[in-house]
Amino acid sequence: MINVTVWNEFVHEQIRDDVKAIYPEGIHKVLADGLSKEGFACRTATLDQEEHGLTESVLNSTDVMLWWGHTAHDLVDDDIAEAVVRRVHEGMGLIVLHSGHFSKPFKQLMGTSCDLKWRVADEQEILWCVNPSHPIAQGVNPSITLDKEEMYGEFFDVPAPDELVYLSNFEGGEVFRSGCTYRRGHGKIFYFRPGHETYPTYHNEDIMHIIANAVRWAYPATNARPQFGRTEPQRTLAGHLTI
Questions:
Q1: Whole-prediction pTM
Q2: Which alpha helices (DSSP H) does 37-114 contain, by range?
């Protein structure tokens, strides 16, 4: 079974009635409930918990982590962010959602500002699949229309994706690379744009299907940690070095 940890800063839902009306128990609860229906073992963690809910034991037992943040990026402890990055390099999958592009772990993994253009104006977004053979796109409609979302526009200051799976266009004419994959160390990363807190995006079945596919894709091929440092040569019985 795939062990998933859904991390959410859980700030907007507690201070804004319009967000609370859509996600009364938090964005993390909706995400975890949706993924649990897919057969994943899900738990949640939030900013206000001790060590932000990301203790060493939680991180070490997480196969794939989802990260949603927006207004409290700077409140995430640097040591916790670095521990998340280290686990990605060791093989943990990471799915970064919406404004998590500005999170400490994602920025550290990308090595860029991760900045972009944005506008909240109740605009329609159409997500276009530009890589239909990719596992993340399997079983999902070729395009998904979201009646209202926040606009994100290019230029998006991230490294060129290993694979571009989704591209968005908005009413104002902007386009955005909305579904990007990366590999860092032994870990797989998927950045997925939709999910502004004032819209019911994570109640959309197609959006959740994409996220579930991304969890399966990001699941590490092996839980064995890479070994580094001095080692002895491995020899066959014939005395030759094993390559």
A1: 0.93
A2: 56-60, 78-90, 104-110
